[in-house]
Amino acid sequence: MITPTLEGQLISVQIGTPQTLGQADASHPMDQPWTTGFFKLPVAHPVRLGLTNLDGDGQADLKNHGGPEKAVNVYPVEHYPYWQQVLGATELPFGSFGENFTTEGLRETEVCLGDMFEIGSAVVQVSQPRQPCWKLARRWHRKDLALRVQESGRTGWYFRVLREGTIQAGSRLILVERPCPEWTVAAANDTMHRQTDDLHAAQHLAACPALAVRWRETLNKRVETKTVGSTTARLYGPNL
To answer: Distance between terminal CA atoms of the chain?
Structure first.
């Protein structure tokens, strides 16, 4: 089942390579040295999209970021006004959430796991919701920000790349196939982070063939052990 009318636009593309920031003698954890690929800048020219990332882009923590199932980090521009108010920022430039693609017209309640989109000459597929980490919090010097993003459901998501190609800001994202209409990104977030005692839902989500392997492993472990793993390290890391 597909929804031919579902279409978005790529309004900005961001790339960047890892850099080390902070001061070794800083007393506040937020000001101490850290290495991150979070700071990405918009590019207007066409960019080659490969199986693991965009040309010119890089991640500092390759265990938890990047790779085939997290090739592209996507964030809806519709969330920007909300976070601008929360952060008290006069403006938020595209890429403020470390995303590669800033999109318009697509939200977590509308996009499903496994959705395949044509964009430029490439084809991409939704692999999992984004799980915000402590580096987002450090970027904005707000210790609770990763948790707030997770709890708000305004997480964005990741694309895997099914067909390599060239993309550019201004391109349309056109839905071409929807194999898992029962699992919106929002529903997947609810099962992973809110309805943690619903083991049936966890088992059902883990069976979704389009879902990233690590999410499936986490959910299957939850079902097997009937326990929920701690997220403190991901959400707060060394910021505490």
So the answer is: 46
